UniProtKB/TrEMBL annotation:
Homodimer. GO terms for molecular function: kynurenine-oxoglutarate transaminase activity; pyridoxal phosphate binding; succinyldiaminopimelate transaminase activity. Involved in the lysine biosynthetic pathways. It catalyzes the transfer of an amino group from L-glutamate to N-succinyl-2-l-amino-6-oxoheptanedioate (N-succinyl-2-l-amino-6-ketopimelate) in a PLP-dependent reaction, yielding as products N-succinyl-l-2,6-diaminoheptanedioate (N-succinyl-diaminopimelate) and 2-oxoglutarate. Its EC number is 2.6.1.17. It catalyses: N-succinyl-(2S,6S)-2,6-diaminopimelate + 2-oxoglutarate = (S)-2-succinylamino-6-oxoheptanedioate + L-glutamate. It is found in: Cytoplasm. It is an enzyme of class 2 (transferase). GO terms for cellular component: cytoplasm. Pathway: Amino-acid biosynthesis; L-lysine biosynthesis via DAP pathway; LL-2,6-diaminopimelate from (S)-tetrahydrodipicolinate (succinylase route): step 2/3. This is Probable N-succinyldiaminopimelate aminotransferase DapC. It comes from Streptomyces caeruleatus. One of its GO terms (biological process) is amino acid biosynthetic process. Its cofactor is pyridoxal 5'-phosphate. Keywords: Amino-acid biosynthesis, Aminotransferase, Cytoplasm, Pyridoxal phosphate, Transferase.
Length: 397
């Protein structure tokens, strides 16, 4: 020590100072203390398929994955990820050099940004954005440049001119999330083609968070950006078993991309967790090989839940942005005579016994997100029905 005590400056460093605790901690505590139904955090209240759970038990009993698995992930899972990308999207990735297993999509995002960014690089992300993006960009010393999705005829849309204008000589990377949390927007083929053209034209790297790839509804279609012309060599695609198989606690995610990109991401990843989720990796390998009927049923079930919650929210007086994907509904509270999502969400447990999340926490331009509130519908139908019954009280003021 050189005279100054270690506590005379803030303990949390400047890069992370703005990221104290997340809203989810506050809201989940509020849900507990008020006995509210928690539609805040997005995790399912029912576990995924029994056979997948059994596969994990079998792996654990057979002694597969109980010791450090290989750095890039167990070969069976890497093969299953590669086969999944090929079968669904016609994208082929070499099992040994172009697939990396991570501790959830969260680590894939962190490792990718830590690997690819130099301090001062700008990263364009779609606002509202998933909360770990801002923190990871900051940890990597990058600068985030939000491009705001704006409400337009019932959904939140990307303004391609705004995206184009946001690119500068310092832009290194586009961080795209589709299907998009929290708005439920699924970027269309035309929008993705325009994003791809821009990335090629300005020679940008692209990171796409596709953890909701299997949760698209009605006639929406999930298309990986990596499949567009000129994109394979510049795109890191991130996926996760958590949302697709309803095992968010297992933390099995992955990144796919060119050998050069995956090698770079691996360099950072090996010093974060090194490896994780041993036996679960074997189980997820089996899950990814489930027949198409599993994925179809998941979509149909989740769509039915969306419809229950969307109808209930509309009846309670919210403006509802019907999501084309994910398991979240964003609402506008202004028809209820409210305009401040933070105040509304802090009061909602007392008023109606339900917890939701103010979308403003996902914005740099907080005022742009102020009147929007997010509800998760990855819950049992009876729970959703109970929640919508409670929310009807809002009508009575
Ligand atoms: C849930 C979520 C993640 C994190 O996925 P894990 O596999 O649980 O780490 C990443 N991105 C988005 C958009 C998410 O909603």
């Amino acid at each position: 020590m050189t005279g100054m005590t270690s506590t005379s400056r803030p303990l949390l460093n400047r890069r992370l100072a703005e990221f104290g605790t997340t809203i989810f901690a506050e809201m989940s505590a509020l849900a507990l203390s008020t006995g509210s139904i928690n539609l805040g955090q997005g995790f399912p209240d029912t576990d995924g398929p029994e056979e997948v759970r059994e596969a994990a038990v079998r792996a654990l009993r057979d002694g597969r994955g109980n010791q450090y698995p290989p750095g890039p992930g167990v070969p069976a899972l890497r093969a299953a990820i590669s086969a999944h990308q090929e079968r669904r999207y016609g994208l082929s990735y070499d099992v040994d050099t172009e697939v990396l297993v991570t501790a959830g999509a969260t680590e894939a995002i962190a490792a990718t940004l830590l690997a690819l960014l130099e301090p001062g690089d700008e990263v364009i992300a779609l606002e509202p954005y998933y909360d770990s993006y801002a923190a990871c960009i900051a940890m990597a010393g990058g600068t985030r440049v939000p491009v705001t999705l704006r409400p337009h005829e019932g959904s939140f849309r990307l303004d391609l001119d705004e995206l184009r204008d946001a690119v500068t000589d310092r832009t290194r990377l586009l961080l795209i999330n589709t299907p998009h949390n929290p708005t439920g927007t699924v970027l269309t083929r035309a929008e993705l083609a325009a994003v791809a053209e821009l990335a090629v034209e300005r020679d940008l790297l692209v990171v796409t968070d596709e953890v909701y790839e299997h949760l698209v509804f009605d006639d929406a279609e999930h298309l990986p950006l990596a499949g567009f012309p000129g994109m394979r060599e510049r795109t890191v695609t991130i996926g996760s078993a958590g949302k697709t198989f309803s095992f968010t606690g297992w933390k099995v995610g992955w990144a796919t991309g060119s050998r050069e990109l995956v090698t770079a991401v691996r360099s950072a990843k090996q010093f974060l967790t090194y490896v994780s989720s041993g036996p679960f990796q074997y189980a997820v390998a089996e899950a990814l090989a489930l027949p198409d009927t599993y994925f179809e049923t998941l979509r149909a079930d989740m769509r039915a839940k969306r419809d229950v919650l969307a109808a209930g929210l509309a009846e309670a007086g919210f403006e509802v942005f019907r999501p084309a994907g994910t398991y979240f509904i964003t609402t506008d509270i202004r028809p209820l005579g409210e305009s401040d999502g933070f105040a509304f969400c802090r009061a909602l447990p007392e008023r109606a016994g339900v917890v939701a999340i103010p979308n403003a926490v996902f914005y740099d331009h907080r005022e742009a997100g102020a009147p929007f509130v997010r509800f998760a519908f990855c819950k049992r139908t009876d729970v959703l029905q109970a929640a919508t019954d409670r929310l009807l009280q809002l009508r009575k003021g």
